[in-house]
Amino acid sequence: MHTPICDRLGIEVPIFAFSHCRDVVAAESRAGGFGVLGAVGFTPEQLEVECRWIDEHVGNHTYGVDIVIPGKYEGMGEVDPAKLEEHLRALVPQEHRDFAAKLLRDHGVPELPEDSKARELIGWTAATANPQIDVALAHPKVRAIANALGTPPEDVIGRVQQSGRLIGALCGSPQQARKHKEAGLDFVIAQGTEGGGHTGEIGSVVLWPQVVDAVAPIPVLAAGGIATGRQIAAALALGCAGVWAGSLWLAVEEAEAPQAQRESYFAASSKDTVRSRSFTGKPCRMLRNEWTDAWEQPDAPKPLGMPLQGMVTMDTVARTHRYADKAQPVAFNPIGQVVGMIDRTESVRDLMLRLQEQYLAAVERLDALQPADA
Ligand SMILES: Cc1cc2nc3c(=O)[nH]c(=O)nc-3n(C[C@H](O)[C@H](O)[C@H](O)COP(=O)(O)O)c2cc1C
After folding, report:
1. Which residues pair with 243 in a beta bridge?
2. If exposure means fewest CB atoms within 10 Å of the residue's CB, which of 61, 72, 85, 163 is most exposed?
3. How far apart are the C-alpha atoms of 369 and 255, rounded to whole Å?
4. What is the mean pLDDT of residues 225-252?
5. Ligand 1: which residue has its CA nearest to atom 16?
């Protein structure tokens, strides 16, 4: 399973684990893959704490940091995070805040204590991502930066590459992938519609080979729908250089997930997710629930653009996480269609061993196929 990108990053197998949880990131890199920390929900100060913790727990291994600078968003061009937040807050209609507040009230989700109110704008813009990149680049074990929702700006690409690291970005179409290639990115992550989080409309098996062809010889990581070694074998057979999974790590032992949230995953089938704009303003795959249904009703306000909708829902995300036991019907649970294949809690190490065993079994099965006339 070793491919050239493994040597560039100093890893054994090209299995990338995207996670917002530092324990998962460190465990993944220690298990021979490449853990990538999602930075979007962290202030620069918090990210510094997370990276320091990973540095101490990852041994001699390397890891990555993922930021979100969308190709298009409200307030684009403003570089001062404080001014941007003030400017954006004025654009959020009270109707949206009232609608969200009523949904939580109707479901009995308590308010946050005054001292733990969430900040409204942390990620989702260049102004907020640049300080996160500064933090990441100060940590030598961070060997790659990835960007979601668009081609990173030229200055970001230059800064990361001049520091000797790799920079990549997610895409949901061959057109977007070509823009990444033109911008000079080092790798591309092709995410099919079945993936968790922000996702496009094209299915993985159709998307991956198109992106491989569109950006060759740049390595492509297959995302969207990876839950077994059989799917990894399929991705490599389609020309990908590795796989990038997100949903798979949400229920591992190391993940910081309340039990009620894990139970929601175990109970769900692959039909129970929906692409909804109701939390972030861009189509994002998550568990369908009463919150996602409510924003689809004809009398509901239309979700705002990014990052405005996220400013409306920041409080909801924090409250439904803190009070997970009562809040599942309105909680933010981004996850892909592989949720129907996630049925247990296991350690990252055991999961990584299982993926590699399944991969080998799949490859052996193919090897054993005889020509029709043999
Ligand atoms: C809970 C969750 C949060 C995510 N947040 C981000 C993010 O902040 N940045 C990003 O690049 N991708 C994010 N993604 C997408 C993942 O990086 C990955 O591409 C996706 O999960 C792959 O599909 P899969 O869910 O089928 O494994 C997220 C995915 C999940 C499940």
Report:
1. 15, 222
2. 72
3. 39
4. 98
5. 246
Does 373 reside within a domain? no
Among 152, 109, 117, CA closest to 133 = 152
All residues at 6 or more sequence positions from 144 whose CB lies less than 8 Å from its CB, including other chains:
9, 34, 36, 62, 64, 65, 165, 166, 167, 168, 186, 187
Task: With respect to residue 374, please indicate whether it lies within any of the assigned structural domains.
Answer: no
Task: Name the residue at shortest CA distance from atom 6 of ligand 1.
Answer: 197
Contact 300, 258 (CB under 8 A): no
Would you say residue 327 lies in a domain? yes
Q: Which atom of ligand 1 is nearest to the CA of 192?
A: 23
Interval between CA 97 and ligand 1 midpoint (Å): 26
Q: How many domains does the chain have?
A: 1
* Ligand 1 binding pocket, CB closer than 6 Å: 18, 38, 40, 66, 68, 146, 148, 170, 191, 194-197, 223-226, 244-248, 334-336, 338
- 153 burial type by CB count under 10 A (0-12 exposed, 13-18 middle, 19+ buried): middle
Helix or strand (DSSP H, E) at 266: helix 259-267
Residue 191: strand pairing partners: 223
Ligand 1 atom showing the smallest separation from residue 245 Cα: 27
Q: What is the pLDDT of residues 328-350, one digit of tens each?
A: 999 999 999 999 999 999 999 99
Tell me the CATH number at 139: 3.20.20.70
* Residue to substitute in 15, 16, 18 for testing ligand 1 pocket (most ligand atoms within 8 angstroms of CB): 18
Indicate which atom in ligand 1 lies nearest the CA of residue 170.
11
Owning domain of residue 103: 4-367
pLDDT over 90, % of the chain: 87
Kindly report the pTM of this predicted structure: 0.95
Domain assignment of residue 306, yes or no: yes
pLDDT at 118 over 80: no
